[in-house]
Write a structure and sequence with these properties.
Elements: H1 8-11, H2 13-28, H3 33-41, H4 46-58, H5 65-78, H6 81-96, H7 104-109, H8 111-127, H9 131-145, E1 147-149, E2 154-155, E3 160-161, E4 167-169, E5 174-175, E6 180-181, E7 186-188, E8 200-201, E9 206-207, E10 212-214, E11 218-219, E12 224-225, E13 230-231, E14 239-242, E15 247-251, H10 257-260
Parallel strand pairs: 1-4, 2-5, 3-6, 4-7, 5-8, 6-9, 7-10, 8-11, 9-12, 10-13, 12-14
Antiparallel strand pairs: 14-15
Helix pairs in contact: 2-3, 4-5, 4-8, 6-8, 8-9
EC number: 2.3.1.30
InterPro entries: Hexapep, Hexapep_transf_CS, LbH_SAT, Ser_AcTrfase_N, Ser_AcTrfase_N_sf, Ser_O-AcTrfase, Serine_acetyltransferase, Trimer_LpxA-like_sf
Protein name: Serine acetyltransferase
Length: about 270
């Protein structure tokens, strides 16, 4: 006798937990029941819920929710890594942000998570040669979320952009895995060059609020950039830099600054 197939949620613990949290949210606050059903419980998979959320946020008079949703669903079907990266981002926010108590929060409420997932969709379209649609998504992400990430930029997994206001990431920027940054961060250029002109951020880096990292420079893995700093030169791995212009003020202080989210450093160093 054939055994019944396990439910899809049993094979996807992140999605299973989100659905449980959705049911609990409706019990505690019935007024959001319609939104939670439409955004979570109506969907069979995490990817479908994600596509719905992105399309709902980015739709406008110029581009319907249906077109955007069909585009997102096709992208997730063709490139499963998109939804896997979204799961890594979701778990990263839950682990690092003390204001995040449930996995459902970033999906429904955190514009940093939603902006990064919309960027991922735009980046996929960019790699497929659909650049005008990618530019449209970049435009709408900037208008809706206040986050401007060029679709050609490359970003790893486990990304957290906390508060996510006035964030700018340029065309040739590269962001590694498990990077955390706060609001008003700029990964920008220094002039009108049209070649490789933006920063390369290593794995595990923590970038404080208002920091500006400018030019084709390298920020080494597991380093920290203090809030308000202007970084114009390479940063060695596992160092803390601060100031305008930024200089090395000490060691990173831990193995994974982006995970501990510790922004303090010893001024005696």
């Amino acid at each position: 006798m054939r055994q019944p197939k396990p439910a899809l949620t049993e094979l996807d613990p992140v999605w299973h937990r989100i659905r449980q949290e959705a049911e609990d949210a409706i019990i505690s606050e019935p007024l959001i029941g319609g939104m939670v059903h439409a955004g979570v419980l109506h969907h069979a998979t995490f990817a479908a819920a994600l596509g719905y959320r992105i399309s709902l946020k980015l739709a406008s008079a110029e581009m319907s929710e249906q077109i955007l949703r069909e585009t997102a669903n096709a992208a997730y079907a063709a490139e499963p890594a998109l939804a896997l990266a979204a799961r890594a981002d979701l778990v990263a926010i839950y682990d690092r942000d003390p204001a995040c108590h449930r996995l459902i929060q970033p999906l429904l409420f955190f514009k940093g998570f939603q902006a990064v997932q919309a960027y991922r969709l735009g980046h996929y379209l960019w790699t497929q040669g659909r650049r005008d649609l990618a530019y449209f998504i970049q435009m709408r992400v900037s208008e809706v979320f206040g986050v401007d990430i060029h679709p050609a930029a490359r970003m790893g997994k486990g990304i957290m952009i906390d508060h996510a206001h006035s964030v700018v990431i340029g065309e040739t920027a590269v962001v590694g895995d498990n990077v955390s940054m706060l609001h008003s961060v700029t990964l920008g250029g220094t002039g009108k060059e049209d070649d490789d002109r933006h920063p390369k951020i290593g794995n595990g880096v923590l970038i404080g609020a208002g920091a500006k990292v400018l030019g084709n420079i390298k920020v080494g893995h597991c380093s920290r950039i203090a809030a308000g700093s202007v970084v114009l030169d390479d940063v060695p791995p596992m160092k803390t830099v601060a100031g305008v212009p930024a200089r090395i003020v000490g060691e990173a202080g831990c193995a994974q600054p982006s995970v501990t989210m510790d922004h303090l450093f010893d001024h005696d160093h």
